[in-house]
Amino acid sequence: MTNSLSVLAGTLISLVSFTSIALSQPACVTQNMAVPLGANTTDKAAPFFIDTTGLDFKTAPPTRDPSNPNYPRATELPDGTLPPSGAEGNFIIGPTHNPAPETIAKEGVPRGTTKSFTLTSKESTIYNPGLIRDDVAGCTNSSIMTTVTAPDDKSHMIVTTSHPGIWSRTIDVYVPAQYVRGTEAPFIVVGDGGSNAYKDLATTLDNLIAQRRVPPMIAIQIGNGGQDAQGSQRGREYDAVSGDYAQFVEREVLPLVEKNADVKLTKNPDGRATMGLSSSGVAAFTMAWFYPDLYHRVLAFSPTMVNQQWPHDPSLRGGAWEYHSAWTGPATPNLISKAGVLTPAEPPGVPLIVAAPVKPIRFWFFGGDQDLFYPNPTIPDGMHDWTLSNALTAKVLAEKGYHYQFLFVRNAKHVDRPTIAQTLPSALEWVWKGYPIP
After folding, report:
1. How far apart are the C-alpha atoms of 140 and 137, rounded to whole Å?
2. Helices 201-210 and 417-431 meet at what angle, rounded to 10?
3. Eight-class DSSP state of 99
4. Where are the domains of the chain?
5. pLDDT reading at 5 higher than 70
6. Cα–Cα distances in angstroms (integers) from residue 286 to residues 168, 171, 246, in the given order
7. Is the pLDDT of residue 253 over 50?
8. What stretches of 308-426 adopt beta strand conformation (E)?
9. In 3-state terms, what secondary structure has residue 233?
10. Are strands 218-222 and 187-191 parallel, antiparallel or unpaired?
11. Which of the four pLDDT bands, split at 50, 70 and 90, describes residue 332?
């Protein structure tokens, strides 16, 4: 065989091998943005109904109309403006979202410092071992984008690819220049720490603290446990409707913050806030919901008030959707475990916020008009419309008399970065209203 033929043969062998490898790799399933196949969109009285009222499917995700009768009535503001300081209730903003001036560093403003440390699952009691889901390399959430739900229950996703594993996360602690060593400081716990969505947080706090619009607070950004959604460590922490994550923060993170950053954190729940985005946004609310003796103030961007909880919980089959609305499945009572035996819960099907006495929670949040809509095509359960879930949360908060501010945001997608840059300073100021500023 001549050299040229050898080269040609080698090239063909390489091409065949490469093609075989490429063909053996399954194509990534892209995020769904439309009504899933097999969904019930016609019979409102039947289980797992998906309401498409007021949705414009010419965009993906669909654009929602703020005048949708399913949403609470809201005050529409002039484009580019925000609600008055301290205002409560529902507001419509957009479509223009310019960054607030407080997000930009200013000369002469004292700057805080940030100290970082790492925490691993080996050091944890609550989340040891961690949880890892086997996905195809380079394909986000691949193993759950092609899974199935349980027979006769479209809300119960079957995940078989998760197993125990190890996690490691970074914790970044912002300490304001005005902090006096040895004194107890108010603080805000920030989920999904390290996200680009928080790139302006330290600068914003520098400016707001200098202007005496918020107290000099410690900001604790806690990285998530890894991956996303059902079967992941991140989903296990954030989407569970339980007090586990709050206890993880209280018992395992905050003592290390005090030690590594040389600060003292207040025990007063009025001086403790939570903050997050998407699933860490609902986790921020969950922390205060289960432990109002620890947290009174909550701030969330596109909080995941939908059915993302996994493993499936027969006592709360709709996950966080059941904060504001009943499970969408057949009309049967939730089940609770008593001495290891599942028994009907009382009252059956009543949403958590509706059923519980009012808690001392102050809640600021927004949802975009193009927020997530059934991103996973395998779970057509009537409980995965992020915009609707946020609007319904606002509705029940109003009915119960909570202090809250909800923004329906035009021209905004999930965890919309321009909207965060526009609203972060005013949101922080609103959340901390009433707290003494020295």
Report:
1. 8
2. 40
3. P
4. 56-431
5. no
6. 23, 20, 8
7. yes
8. 335-338, 341-344, 362-370, 403-413
9. helix
10. parallel
11. confident
pLDDT at position 338: 64
Q: Which residue matches tokens 């949880």?
A: 131
Short-list 367, 340, 389, CA closest to 92: 367
Q: Which helix (H) or strand (E) holds 289?
A: helix 279-290
Its pTM stands at: 0.92
Q: Is the peptide bond before 347 cis (omega within 30 degrees of 0)?
A: yes
Q: What is the token pair recorded at 132? A: 């890892």
CATH class of 56-431: alpha beta
Asked if residue 9 has pLDDT above 60, the reply is no
The answer, yes or no, to whether the previous bond of 129 is cis (omega within 30 of 0) is: yes
Element (H, E) at 163: strand 162-165
Q: Measured between alpha carbons, how far is 412 from 98 in angstroms, rounded to an integer?
A: 12
Q: Is 82 left (phi over 0), alpha (psi -120 to 50) or beta?
A: beta
Which DSSP state fits 340? Answer: T
- The DSSP secondary structure of 28-94, one letter per residue, reads PPPPP-SPPTT-B-S-TTSTTB---TTEETTSSSPEEPTT-TTSPP-EEPPTT--PPTT--EEEEE-
Q: Report which of 110, 80, 107 is spatially closest to residue 93, judged by C-alpha positions.
A: 80
What burial letters (b/e) apply to 326-360, b meaning 16+ CB within 10 Å?
Answer: bbbbeeeebbeeeeeeeeebeeebebebeeeeeee
Report how many helices (DSSP H) and strands (DSSP E) the chain contains, helices first. Answer: 10, 20
Nearest to 365 by CA among 399, 401, 422, 407: 407
What distance in Å separates the CA atoms of residue 60 and residue 79, rounded to the nearest whole number?
23
Q: How far out from the chain centre does Cα 389 lie? A: 12
86-120 residue pLDDT tens: 999 999 999 999 999 999 999 999 999 999 999 99
Please, what is the Cα angle at 294 between 289 and 297, to 5 degrees? 65
d(CA 376, CA 29): 9
The one-character DSSP state at 249 is I
For residue 268, what is the enclosing H or E element? none
Can you read off the two tokens belonging to residue 65?
A: 């109309």
The conformation of residue 109, written as its DSSP 8-state character, comes to -
The pLDDT assigned to 343 comes to 65
How far is the C-alpha of 338 from the C-alpha of 324, rounded, in Å?
25
**Residue 14: pLDDT band with limits 50, 70, 90:** very low
- Pairing mode, strands 89-93 and 403-413: parallel
According to DSSP, the residues that pair with 56 across neighbouring strands are: 63
For residue 219, the one-letter residue type is A
User: Out of 156-160, 209-213, 331-335, which region has the weakest mean confidence (pLDDT)?
Assistant: 331-335
